Amino acid sequence: MSIKAFELVPAIERVKLMSDKAKTQIECLDVCGKNVYIGTNDCFVVHYSIEEETNSSGRVSFKTEKQGHKFLTVKKPVVQIKTASALNRIMVLCDNTLTLLNMLDLEPIMTGAKVKGVSCFCINENPIRTNPFSVEICVALKKKTVQLYTVTEDRLMHLRDLHIPDPAVAVGIDGIHVCAGLATSYNMINSETGQDQFLFPFDAENNKPIIKRISKEEFLLSGPSALGMFVSSAGNSKRPPISWSENLLSIGYVHPYIVAMNDEFITVHSILDMQQKQAIPFQGGAALDNFDGRLFVASGREVYALVPVPFEKQIQALLADKRVTEALDLAKNANRTGMTRDKFLKMYRRIQQQAGFIQFAQKEFEQARTLFLESEIDVRELISVYPHLLPSNCNFTRSVPALHEIADVTQLVKGDNSLLADFKYFLRTYLEEIRGTKAAYGFKQEIDVALLKVYAETNSPELQTLVAVDTGCDLHDCVEWLTKYGRFHALALLYKYHGENDKALGVWTKLVDDGVKDEAFPGLIFIVEVLANLSDHELVWKYIDWVLEKDEEMGVKVLTERPANDPPSERLRPDAVIDYLHRFPSAVITYLEYLVFQRKLEKETYHTHLAVLYLDNVLRLMKKDNVKKEELDSARSKLRHMLQMSSLYRVQLILGKAKETDMHAECAILYGKLEEHDKALRILVHKLKDFGGAENYCLVNSEGKDPAYRKRLFHILLSVYLDPSYERRDTLITPAVTLLNSSVAEFDTIKVLQLLPDNWSVGLLSQFLTRAVRSSMHNSRMTRIERMMSRVENLRCKEQCIELQRDPVVVNEERLCAVCKRAFNDPTFVRYPNGVVTHVHCAKNKFICPVTGRLFSSGSGAS
Q: DSSP assignment of 657-707, as one string?
């Protein structure tokens, strides 16, 4: 695919020599700065000065003036000219002789420096030696030799000879590597080792061998079948070949283009994709090359410049043809034209953005996404192609010059709703990807508003997350949009985020009351959670009545699930809340449970109130017909737990109500709270027949108290079992024996024996008596052991006392404290086992000597 990369501009329209009648033809040329040197077929070297001019429209022209000429006398064509500006010399090859001329007057050097028998030569652009006042050249002789020279102002100093299989027709050199085009092949020669490597065959008789240095240790060679072959110094190729025309005369290289000339055309190929980009008709070509970054081409009588079209124009032309890949490849290499890094990055990112919109318009969304991300595009450029998605207060204006010609996406979809959905999905995913990243910096509102509108249209579940947490959406634009699409829950969340809690709750209450509908709304529980975490207590009281009327158990959570850092308020004082909740019986019970069990407030009124409500609930259920047993059992279980757990309620009040019914278990607990254990246990044993419960009663009510108290409770229980006045006492013999044999019951054996009836056999009591005897013996033995251990300890103390008295400590006016060196004014002192005596307050640790630091065992510390 073609592109205009160069323009052919006349530089020297007609070469003037001795006269216009002279049949002079250009054979070769070289350009150095503002100097042009031309070699002709009739042995002249002509010198021109050249000035490049650019007019206001950007067109380039050249102004030239002939400076002089020199006839070399041999009447043979000048085959090659190379300038060495550092030496002020030009090297001329004519009649197989390489000579040096002065750049200014074209006179030969006085020393007569020359090399004969030369077929061609080239300059080493990557010299081995670093002398700035010399030039390294490679010379091919007619015999089978290549020579290396160092050129100075007045000498051609021979360095070495390289022997080759055949005479070289063309040569190229880079560093120590010489590429030679022979009659039948191309060869690569290492000038240091002399190693000769065959590259590939070539017929020099039918095709002109051409060698062009491309970069360090890389050459471009004219190969067979009209192919340009890239060859490295190692003999391999790192690029695919270029396919060009037959009968090439010359090639030049200026990155990223390779320019080739045959007898009819000048063709331009890109080294990036090896494709031909331009063809310029040009007949009678004589020479073409890159001279210090400028391309010049000569015909028989004229010299032209190949002026590069600015990269920006080339790239824009490619983009206009929708050739995105080529445009980006060319743009990447534009940095080699001498642009600063910042200018290049700015230019390249703009090209990426243009390319991104081209891919976007062609529905290549993945490629467009990559280009937009890499170019760090102003996200508003993308949002602006979607109608009404930018915030109304956004004063964004599209880039000038424009990045694209898209009015909006409706222009691209042409009424296709499914395609429109694809475009919006692309926008959504792109905005989601960049949200919160560097690419979104400064555009949070624009991104969030656009996402909200897209989410609202598609009823996306991400809408609630967007508006609820750290959103940039403003109310001005979004309220109307959310209302339009019926996203009322999201609307309320947005109100809440912006602090408009009253409006938010107003929307949610309408959703509960079926004023409006929104499937995303979680229901009443969500409003309860919002109110529970609301610090505006006035607003809480505005809506709590409505919530409690909808659901008491759920509504009371507004009061019981307040945050820990909730500020105190008179209206949320527990007494005020309880007074308010009297209309809601379930709610007041739940709230009192919260105060008693969760907050653990030890206030008699709360505990009594809750116990009374529990009791009233049980009584109500007992009077009610067809009540499920599970419901009644649950209510009584809560009441019993409350009565057993708390000690703050008014026991007599509850007991007075409980005694009026058959609530024997509850009465037993209440009698226990009054320390009337006999009555409690008689209820458990005589009325409830709950023998296990009676035993458990003794354990629970003696918990945390001394063993004597527990024994007293079990003796009371045993007395109830053995009460002779109970008419059915025979039925209690078994539970009495079971109690005596229980491993958890504790008794005073003598008192038990005094209580037992005389008619009970020893066999009936064998287990109890056996355990009692063992326990008595164990206690006796333990007592003896403790007594003996005490005697041992007493003996040890006596021994220590004797030891201490054996070495008396004399404390008088002359005795000083070992630590502070002061006298003892008090009869008390501290003596360490090593004899150190100190004041009491100077002895910091009785196990460590304060003077020597010696550590004593716990049994031999200071006394």
A: HHTTTT-HHHHHHHHHHTT-HHHHHHIIIIIS--HHHHHHHHHHHTTTS-H
